[in-house]
Design brief:
Layout lengths: L1 E6 L22 E4 L7 H7 L4 E5 L2 H10 L4 E3 L7 H17 L4 E5 L3 H8 L1 H4 L3 E5 L3 H20 L5 E5 L5 H4 L9 E6 L1
Parallel strand pairs: 1-8, 2-7, 2-8, 3-5, 3-6, 4-5, 6-7
Helix pairs in contact: 3-4
Length: about 190
């Protein structure tokens, strides 16, 4: 584990107040242990100046953030979606991408494969992919292991991935998993 402690400046309670913080300043992919919940990292991800895909295992979080973030796009594919549903949702995302200057896409882990397919390999590398609550990849794998493995397979070759959690998995275990092994690990010191 390549661990580094990042000192949060005095007086900063939320990422929006940390003017010097910029995702682009870090070597991707990396793990960010934000240590504190409710510090506004998800909001930062949706308000930063980069095309961003926010992936979360929790639909309620995505729905709430979508409602709070004008100009964002929430895409949720369901297992029961038929081919027409998938085509329609894909067209909606394609239309959004063609009409927005700074795309902010919210999706569940299991919907990411569709988002990636629609964006295409030629353009997916332009996006910062924020994997929120990444420790749930391990936790949820006991219930939907195939989904979690599939999600990992769709992100493992991307270069601009930030794995975020306030409660990340034990570092020694992360070192045993190929996708996390040897990643820079940034831990915030509030």
């Amino acid at each position: 584990m390549n661990k580094k402690i990042l000192q949060v400046p005095a007086g900063v309670r939320f990422f929006k107040d940390w003017k010097e913080f910029d995702l682009a300043n870090y070597q991707f992919p990396f793990i960010l242990n934000k240590v504190a919940t409710g510090c506004g990292f998800t909001t930062y991800a949706l308000e930063n100046p980069y095309p961003t895909i926010l992936c979360s295992p929790r639909k309620k979080l995505l729905e709430n953030k979508y409602e709070q973030t004008p100009g964002s796009f929430y895409l949720d594919f369901q297992p029961e979606d038929n081919e027409n549903d998938i085509i329609k949702k894909g067209q909606d995302l394609a239309n959004y991408l063609s009409t927005t200057r700074l795309p902010k896409i919210l999706c569940t882990y299991d919907s990411f494969k569709h988002v990636r397919r629609i964006i295409g390999d030629k353009y997916i590398g332009l996006f910062y992919v924020i994997v929120d609550e990444f420790s749930n990849i391990f936790i949820d794998s006991q219930f939907k292991g195939d989904t979690e493995l599939e999600f990992v397979s769709y992100i493992k070759d991307l270069s601009k991935v930030c794995f975020v959690s306030a409660t990340p998995y034990i570092e020694e275990y992360l070192d045993e998993v190929d996708i996390f092994k040897d990643l820079p690990y940034l831990e915030l010191d509030w």
